[in-house]
Each structure stands twice: as structure tokens, then as C-alpha cells.
Design brief:
This protein is α+β, with helices and mostly antiparallel strands. Helices cover 41% and strands 24% of the residues. The chain is built from 8 helices and 12 strands. Strands 1-8-3-6 form a 4-stranded antiparallel sheet. α6 crosses α7. The protein is globular, with a radius of gyration of 18 Å.
Length: 227
């Protein structure tokens, strides 16, 4: 069966964008809908749970905490993402906490094993998703060692622009409820270092920042700084 055009709600390359309409319908039918308000905890690191979540609207952050209590943001996920799959596959406790960055909705699926048994192609796609995330994790570890803070901040802003950006006058606007503290946790830097990096990028005319928003005026220039 050839995959159909992904639903508008699913981001490109996210789990649900890879499924056929029949596969999507069957997965939704196997679960139940749930909504979380901004700031709510969707999943908690260390919990043992038997369900996965398909995100249908809104964005979340996946994070973990160091022994010193500092938050490390591992990823930002949007519509179409599958969450909790690592714990499902390994049978181990949740490896991260998932928090709603805005009001989000999703479908909780408890019998995910049964769904995969009936849809063997999806099991292969799940393997591809997991491998992709492991590769992304490896890439970020390389960034931490090879890039300075400004380079890492530029890299994350490019990612946000490519995934969530909206064209605006002379640039790309990224409206995401992500604080500087969270951006610091995503780049492995202090809040002060991130603030300095943003100021450097502003001074170069690459970006403009406001309350929980960034306008990127020179995306190619930002890509070059990221490299």
C-alpha cells in the first residue's frame, strides 16, 4: 500500500506523517483522546507506563534533569509525534519528562503491541523513527563538543525556523513558548551564555527577539553561523 498525503496536522517526518490514512485511522481507533493545558506534565521521567501517545495538536518539550537539578531539554515535538515509544520498546521506565509548551491534544494508545501486530509495515517505520532519534542524539553530543554556545544557539534556532517558522515581513517568525532557561537547557549552556549568544546574533542583524518569539532575518547567515 502506498502512503497517502499526510494529514495537515502532522509535521513532516514525524511518525504520523509516514502512515497511510488507513493506518492512521486504525491507530486513532485503538486509543482515546486526551487534552493537556500549557505547563501540564504529560509523561514523567522514571514512571513505568504501558501506553504511548500520538500528539495531534500543540507542542511539547522532552526533558531530563541532572543530579544537580538542572533541566536538560532533549527535544521539541509537535503534531504527529509519537511519544513514549522508547519505554514501550525497552520495557523500562520513562527516560524523560514530557511537558506541554502550549495546550496540546493527543491520543493515548495502550494496546500498541496489538496495533503493530496488525500493521507490520508500521513496526518497520517505528524502528526507523527510533534510529533517527538516536542519530539526532549523537549529532547533538558532537555539537556540544565542537560548537561554541553561539553556534549551538544558532543551530537550535535554525531547527525551530525550519519546523515551526512562519514567513513574515523580511524574515521568518518563530512563535514558540520556549523561555531562555529552556533554550539554555536545549543547548547545554547557562542562561547567561544563551542571552549573550542571542545578543551577538542580534548585533549581526541575523535575528530579532521578543517575548517568547524570534524573527530570523537572515536564515542562511544563521545556518553559516551554526556551522
Amino acid at each position: 500500500m502506498t502512503p497517502t498525503t499526510p494529514t495537515p496536522a502532522a509535521e513532516p517526518d514525524e511518525f504520523m506523517s509516514l502512515l497511510t490514512k488507513d493506518e492512521c485511522d486504525a491507530l486513532y481507533a485503538a486509543g482515546r483522546k486526551r487534552r493537556w493545558e500549557r505547563g501540564a506534565t504529560v509523561m514523567t521521567e522514571g514512571d513505568t507506563s504501558d501506553w504511548v501517545l500520538v500528539l495531534t495538536s500543540g507542542r511539547v518539550k522532552v526533558s531530563s534533569y541532572t543530579a544537580g537539578g538542572n533541566e536538560v531539554v532533549l527535544a521539541i515535538r509537535g503534531p504527529g509525534a509519537l511519544l513514549g515509544e522508547m519505554s514501550f520498546i525497552s520495557g523500562e521506565p520513562r527516560s524523560g519528562t514530557v511537558t506541554a509548551l502550549e495546550a496540546v491534544e493527543g491520543v493515548i494508545v495502550r494496546d500498541f503491541s496489538g496495533y503493530l501486530r496488525e500493521h507490520g509495515r508500521v513496526a518497520v517505520l517505528l524502528l526507523q523513527i527510533v534510529v533517527g532519534r538516536l542519530r539526532d542524539s549523537d549529532r547533538k553530543r558532537v555539537e556540544y563538543g565542537a560548537f561554541d554556545t553561539t553556534g549551538r544557539v544558532a543551530t537550535r534556532l535554525v531547527e525551530l525556523a525550519e519546523r515551526f517558522g512562519e514567513p513574515t515581513n523580511g524574515g521568518v517568525r518563530v512563535a514558540l513558548p520556549l523561555s531562555q532557561d529552556e533554550l539554555a537547557g536545549w543547548t547545554g549552556a547557562s542562561r547567561e551564555a544563551v542571552s549573550k549568544a542571542l545578543r551577538t546574533l542580534r548585533d549581526r542583524g541575523l535575528i530579532e527577539t521578543g517575548r517568547r518569539r524570534v524573527v530570523i532575518y537572515d536564515l542562511e547567515g544563521l545556518r553559516k553561523r551554526a556551522r
